[in-house]
Design goal:
CATH architecture of the largest domain: 3-Layer(aba) Sandwich
Strand content: 15-25%
Organism: Stenotrophomonas nitritireducens
Protein name: Nitroreductase domain-containing protein
Bound molecules: flavin mononucleotide
Domain Nitroreductase: 182-371
Mean pLDDT: 94
Structural class: alpha+beta
Pfam families: Nitroreductase
CATH class of the largest domain: Alpha Beta
Distance between the termini: 79 Å
Order of helices and strands: EEHEEHEHEEHHHHHEEEEEHEHHEHE
Number of strands: 15
C-alpha cells in the first residue's frame, strides 16, 4: 500500500486557556495555556485533532506523489492513525485477479477550489444552529445590548466635518427606481395567514433569476443574460424555493428553471415539517412566516470551471448573491411585498434536504418575501417610513 495526504488542509495551532488555581494562589495570573493542533481539510466537515508527531508526518507527506509505507512499526502506526482520521489517502492495491490498478482513492470533491477558499467554505457552514438563542445567551440582541457590550463602533461616516477641497454635488430629483429603493426595508414582520399570488412570485423570479437571453460563442459554452451581473457571465446561482403560501402552488420545495421560467418540484431527502423554515433560517423566527423562501444555491463547479484555483472566485460568488438579493428586494417592494436576505443559515441542513454535495453546490444565502403583517413586533430599520407609515399618515 502507498499513501499521500489529502489535497487541501491547514494545520492550526490553537491555544486553549484554562484556570490554574495553584498558579493563582502562588501569585501568578492563573492562566495555563495548552496548544491543540487542529487540521482543517476541505473534504471533511469537522477539524481533526492531531499530535505533534502526526502533524509533522502530514507536513512532510506529498499530496501529489504516492509514498511507500514507512518501514518501522511506530511510523507505520502513525500513518494508519492518519488514514483513520481521513487526512491521508491510501492507494488501493491492484486487484489480484483482474490486474486492474493501482487505483487512487482520491479525496472527494475538492475540484478546482483554491484550497483556503474551499476550507473556509466547508467549515463556515452551520448545522442545527439557533442563532437567536446564541445571540440571547451572549446578550447581543438589541441595539442597546450591542452598544453596552461592545462599546461604540467605528463611526458610520469617517469624516463628518467639511473637508478642504470637498465638492458638493447637486441635489437631483429621485427617479422612480430610486423612490422604489427608498421604500425597500428589510421585513421582519410577515403576515402568517396571507398568500402571495403566482404573478407576484413570477415577477420576482423574472427580475432576478430569469435568463432573458443566452449566447453560445463556442460549442457547449453558454452564457446567460440576466438583469443582474455575474462574475465571468457564468451565473452560477440557482434558486431553490421553499414555498409556504403561494396561490395555486402546493407548499414544498421547487427548483427554478432560468430559461423555461418554470418551477420543478424537488422531492426532499428528509421530510419537511412546520419547523423546516426555522431550521433553514437558523432560528430567526422573524423571517419564518415569509410566504416564500428563496435559497441561493451556488453551483461552485460552474465558476470554478473558469476560475481554477483562483483566490477571488469565492468572493465573486458572494457578490453575485448580493446582486440577486438586491434585485429580489426591489422586485418584492415593487409589488407591495416585504423581503429579506440572510446569510445566517444552516447550510448543512439545507444541503441534506436538497441532496447537495457541499463543494459542488451549496446554499450561500436565503432571501424571502411575503406580505407584511399589520403590526410591527420585531424591529425594522425604517426611518424614512417607507414600509411603516407614521400613525395618522403624517
Ligand atoms: C449579507 C446580509 C446578511 C444579512 N443577514 C441578516 C440576518 O441574519 N438577520 C437579519 O435580521 N437581517 C439580516 N440582514 C438585513 C440587515 O440587517 C439589513 O439590511 C440592515 O439592518 C439594514 O436595513 P434595511 O435593509 O432595511 O435597509 C442582512 C443583510 C445583508 C445584506
Amino acid at each position: 500500500m502507498r499513501v499521500r495526504r489529502c489535497g487541501a488542509l491547514v494545520i492550526e495551532p490553537n491555544e486553549i486557556p484554562s484556570l490554574d488555581i495553584g498558579d493563582l494562589l502562588s501569585g501568578g495570573d492563573g492562566v495555563r495555556t495548552r496548544v491543540e493542533i487542529r487540521v482543517w481539510a476541505a473534504h471533511l466537515d469537522e477539524y481533526r485533532r492531531v499530535s505533534p508527531a502526526q502533524a509533522q508526518w502530514l507536513l512532510q507527506c506529498s499530496a501529489e506523489y504516492w509514498q511507500d509505507l514507512p518501514a518501522d512499526a511506530d511510523s507505520r502506526a502513525l500513518v494508519h492513525s492518519l488514514l483513520a482520521l481521513e487526512l491521508l489517502v491510501a492507494e488501493e492495491v491492484p486487484d489480484a485477479e483482474t490486474g486492474v490498478g493501482p487505483v487512487s482513492r482520491s479525496t472527494p470533491g475538492e475540484g478546482h477550489w483554491w484550497p483556503l477558499a474551499a476550507i473556509h467554505h466547508r467549515h463556515s457552514r452551520w448545522q442545527g444552529v439557533d442563532s437567536v438563542t446564541d445571540m440571547e445567551r451572549s446578550q447581543l440582541v438589541t441595539a442597546h445590548d450591542l452598544r453596552q457590550r461592545l462599546g461604540s463602533p467605528p463611526p458610520a461616516v469617517p469624516d463628518q466635518g467639511p473637508l478642504p477641497g470637498q465638492i458638493g454635488l447637486p441635489e437631483v430629483p429621485a427617479s422612480a427606481l430610486e423612490s422604489l429603493g427608498r421604500r425597500r426595508v428589510t421585513c421582519r414582520n410577515f403576515d402568517p395567514g396571507r398568500s402571495v399570488s403566482m404573478a407576484q412570485l413570477a415577477a420576482a423570479l423574472q427580475q432576478t433569476f430569469r435568463a432573458h437571453a443566452q449566447l453560445e460563442p463556442a460549442p457547449g459554452l453558454v452564457f446567460l443574460k440576466k438583469n443582474v451581473p455575474s462574475a465571468g457571465g457564468l451565473h452560477p446561482m440557482e434558486a431553490c424555493l421553499l414555498v409556504q403560501r403561494v396561490e395555486g402552488l402546493a407548499p414544498g420545495l421547487y427548483r427554478y428553471h432560468p430559461l423555461r421560467h418554470a418551477l420543478t418540484p424537488v422531492v426532499p431527502e428528509c421530510e419537511l415539517d412546520a419547523d423546516t423554515a426555522r431550521r433553514f433560517l437558523a432560528g430567526q423566527h422573524w423571517f419564518v412566516d415569509a410566504a416564500v423562501l428563496v435559497v441561493f444555491v451556488c453551483r461552485f463547479e460552474r465558476s470554478l470551471w473558469k476560475y481554477r484555483n483562483h483566490r477571488k472566485v469565492y468572493r465573486a460568488m458572494m457578490l453575485d448573491a448580493g446582486h440577486l438579493s438586491q434585485a429580489l428586494y426591489m422586485a418584492a417592494t415593487e409589488c407591495g411585498l416585504g423581503a429579506f436576505v440572510t446569510s445566517a443559515i444552516n447550510e448543512v441542513d439545507i444541503e441534506k434536504a436538497l441532496a447537495l454535495d457541499p463543494l459542488k453546490e451549496g446554499p450561500l444565502a436565503i432571501c424571502g418575501m411575503g406580505w407584511r403583517a399589520q403590526e410591527r413586533t420585531t424591529a425594522e430599520l425604517d426611518p424614512l417610513q417607507g414600509a411603516w407609515p407614521a400613525p395618522g399618515g403624517a
